[in-house]
Design goal:
This protein is of the alpha+beta class and 328 residues long. It has ten helices and twelve strands. A hairpin with an 8-residue loop joins strand 4 and strand 5.
């Protein structure tokens, strides 16, 4: 049996249902849960048949699948389904033959793509996939700086598909700065990760500007019938002159000069804070737009960085340091 993308999504969804010992999932419930997940993924109604769900369950129970201990429990004339072993989950099972083959094919494809401009993250993805393929349930070989507790990651795939399909959306948003929820009509363009958080960039139809929204503050998303507004923004260029995600298009580039300690110079050389950076005689120079993320990055290096110019940035850092000092 060839395991396609939709099948894997259904297996994972069914696995969550069967693992839930506190709710009874009848066949109609299983159909509904799978349909909801697929709709969120593709941004349109995707029906799943009763026959397909029963076939999926049969595969999950088989040796070729996951040997899942699915049981049907009669409830009057109906029957609900769950795992006989409450601790079972397909997430803990080793890859089956079909999945192993699919993963190996993916790794082969990724290996051919390494070195192509614009896909520098391939090595990181390949390392993650190799970790899955090679680890047979023994000691973990690699740890990645990602958190399973991040809020908002469930929006990532639906938003990606809304962008790909040029679909206007309505977003219910709860900002840190306001107590009340807000609604935005957005033409979504781009997703970016910064400092372990994901951000959506899109056109705000009401206020007519390019807005960025943190995924962890999004409370709900649904398709909006307003006409999608395309963009000509080159997001590689958009992020080229900033650190982080805040880009005021009216702000000019500024020469920032920072005095470095001997201790921090090797770290800054091996991990540049910006593509424009130059280091000479313990002085770092970058050309960027001033924003909050730049300030926070400089402060994160503590006593190892001292801003010399511009005075505007020096003053802003002094204010933030003074507020920090008053807390202690």
């Amino acid at each position: 049996m060839a395991v396609n993308k939709n099948a894997l999504i259904r297996y994972k969804t069914l696995d969550k249902c069967f693992s839930n010992q506190f709710r009874n999932y009848y066949i109609d419930d299983l159909i509904n849960e799978c349909s909801i997940v697929l709709k969120e993924l593709y941004g349109e109604d995707t029906s799943v048949s009763r026959r397909q769900i029963l076939y999926d369950m049969e595969f999950m129970e088989s040796d070729a699948g996951y040997e899942a201990p699915i049981i049907g429990i009669k409830d009057g004339r109906k029957k609900f389904y769950r795992y006989e072993d409450p601790n079972f989950t397909i997430q803990n099972k080793p890859l089956n033959q079909e999945e192993q083959l699919a993963l190996e094919n993916t790794l082969e494809l990724l290996s051919r793509m390494k070195g192509i401009p614009g896909i520098d993250a391939i090595e990181n993805i390949e390392a993650k996939l190799n970790e899955v393929k090679d680890n047979k349930g023994n000691q973990k070989l690699i740890s990645f700086e990602e958190s399973e507790f991040l809020i908002g990651l469930e929006h990532l795939t639906p938003l990606y598909n809304f962008i790909k399909n040029n679909q206007t959306i309505k977003i219910v948003y709860q900002s840190f700065k306001t107590e009340n929820e807000q609604e935005f009509c957005i033409s979504p363009y781009h997703l970016k990760q910064f400092n372990k958080r994901w951000f959506l960039f899109g056109w705000n139809h009401k206020d007519q500007y390019l807005q960025n929204l943190a995924l962890d503050r999004i409370q709900g998303i649904e398709i909006n019938k307003e006409t999608y507004i395309p963009t000509e923004v080159d997001f590689d260029e958009y992020f080229e002159d900033i650190i982080g995600v805040t880009n005021n298009l009216d702000t000019e580039l500024t020469e920032v000069k920072i005095q470095l300690t001997d201790h921090i110079i090797p770290y800054i050389k091996s991990k540049p804070i910006h593509g424009s950076q130059k280091i000479a005689e313990n002085r770092l120079q970058i050309k960027v737009k001033l924003n909050y993320e730049l300030e926070s990055l400089i402060l994160s290096y503590g006593e190892n960085m001292k801003v010399i110019e511009p005075i505007e940035l020096v003053q802003r850092l002094k204010e933030r340091i003074e507020k920090l000092k008053n807390l202690y």
